[in-house]
Amino acid sequence: MTLPVTIIMIEDDEGHARLIERNIRRSGVNNEIVSFTNGTSAIKHLFGPDGTGLAQKGNALLVLLDLNLPDMSGIDILKQIKENKYLKASPVVVLTTTDDSQEIKRCYELGCNVYITKPVNYENFANAIRQLGLFFSVIQVPPAAP
Question: What confidence score (pLDDT) does residue 141 get?
Answer without folding.
Answer: 56
